[in-house]
């Protein structure tokens, strides 16, 4: 089977990182797929990881990060990731499982920050160069659950410290983007136990992969 690009999306604390690694193990155990690369966005290359630190923890000497600067750093990091990691991995037959991708920018910067839609569209098109995921799994939780799951983290980053109102805007933007999208995006209720979430994800993957094998 040709390599595939799967992305896991959702609010902070929705279980993305856990699910990314569960998918990796499942694809190996059940389907014998060994060539799998996992990514996290923003980040994933030396330069993108430096940008990730700036995006998450802000500038130096108390200089605030403007919304447009945040957006440009996120896309600069993504360009490094797509060009240096994702595209080469896919062309070498690796499956790529991404912890966040472009939908996050549309939801967080577009929905949450209210950044200009046209600017987002232009950047998406240019930076991703039409590299869309084959499948996106959106783990849906309420902003209240999100806050309760991340509150025990040692440090909250700039974005995690945002208000519930911000996360409400992000979530409703995710919903709008999903309902308007022509891409394959599956919504999973991630307020259930992690065990149930993983079972649903695996069941869906089985169905999707059987379908791909039939073609
Ligand atoms: N469905 C779930 N039910 C309860 N706790 C969960 C669930 N999914 C994730 N968690 C917990 O929430 C925290 C954040 O999970 P993580 O996978 O890091 O999410 P994300 O990458 O989306 O921020 C972790 O402590 C994890 O064990
Ligand atoms: C990829 C991406 C992330 N972000 C935000 C969401 C997260 O708060 C942060 C990434 O931090 P991370 O710790 O990877 O997220 P999570 O808490 O979900 O595991 O960056 C954006 O605002 N826009 C983007 O395009």
CATH superfamily: P-loop containing nucleotide triphosphate hydrolases
| Low-confidence sequence ranges | none
Widest sheet: strand order?
2-3-1-4-5
Secondary structure tally, helices? 8
CATH class: Alpha Beta
Q: Largest sheet, if any?
A: 5 strands, parallel
Counted beta strands: 5
**Reported CATH architecture:** 3-Layer(aba) Sandwich
Terminal residue distance: 11 Å
Using the alpha-carbon principal axes, give the shape.
globular
Q: Which percent bin holds the helix content?
A: 55-70%
The run of helices and strands is EHEHHEHHEHHEH
Radius of gyration: 17 Å
Note the beta-strand portion.
5-15%
Name the bound molecules.
Answer: adenosine-5'-diphosphate, thymidine-5'-diphosphate
Mean pLDDT, as a whole number?
Answer: 94
Overall structural domain count: 1
Structural class: alpha/beta
Under CATH, the topology can be stated as: Rossmann fold
Task: Sum this structure up briefly.
By secondary structure, the chain is an alpha/beta fold. It is built from eight helices and five strands; from the N terminus they run βαβααβααβααβα.
What topology emerges from the helices and strands here?
Elements: E1 5-10, H1 16-31, E2 36-40, H2 46-57, H3 67-91, E3 95-99, H4 102-112, H5 117-128, E4 135-140, H6 143-150, H7 164-180, E5 185-189, H8 194-214
Parallel strand pairs: 1-3, 1-4, 2-3, 4-5
The protein binds adenosine-5'-diphosphate and thymidine-5'-diphosphate (TYD).
Describe the model.
It is a single chain. The chain has a single domain, classed as 3-Layer(aba) Sandwich (Rossmann fold). The chain is built from eight helices and five strands. The mean pLDDT is 94. It has 215 residues and is an alpha/beta fold. The structure holds adenosine-5'-diphosphate and thymidine-5'-diphosphate. The site of thymidine-5'-diphosphate has 15 residues, from α1 and α4. The site of adenosine-5'-diphosphate (ADP) has 14 residues, from α1 and α8.
């Amino acid at each position: 089977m040709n390599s595939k690009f799967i992305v896991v999306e959702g609010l902070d604390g929705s279980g993305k990182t856990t699910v990314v690694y569960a998918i990796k193990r499942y694809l190996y155990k059940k389907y014998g797929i060994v060539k799998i690369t996992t990514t996290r966005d923003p980040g994933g290359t030396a330069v993108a990881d430096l940008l990730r630190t700036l995006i998450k923890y802000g500038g130096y000497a108390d200089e605030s990060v403007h919304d447009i600067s945040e957006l440009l750093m996120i896309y600069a990091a993504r360009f490094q990731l797509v060009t240096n990691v994702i595209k080469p991995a896919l062309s070498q037959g690796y499956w790529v499982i991404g912890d966040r991708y472009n939908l996050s920018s549309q939801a967080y910067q577009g929905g949450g920050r209210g950044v200009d839609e046209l600017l987002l569209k232009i950047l998406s098109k240019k930076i991703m160069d039409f590299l869309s995921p084959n499948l996106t799994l959106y783990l849906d939780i309420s902003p209240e659950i999100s806050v309760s799951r991340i509150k025990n983290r040692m440090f909250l980053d700039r974005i995690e410290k945002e208000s519930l109102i911000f996360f409400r805007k992000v979530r409703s933007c995710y919903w709008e983007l999903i309902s308007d999208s022509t891409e394959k995006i599956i919504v999973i209720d991630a307020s259930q136990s992690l065990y149930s979430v993983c079972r649903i994800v695996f069941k869906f993957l089985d169905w999707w992969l059987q379908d791909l094998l039939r073609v």
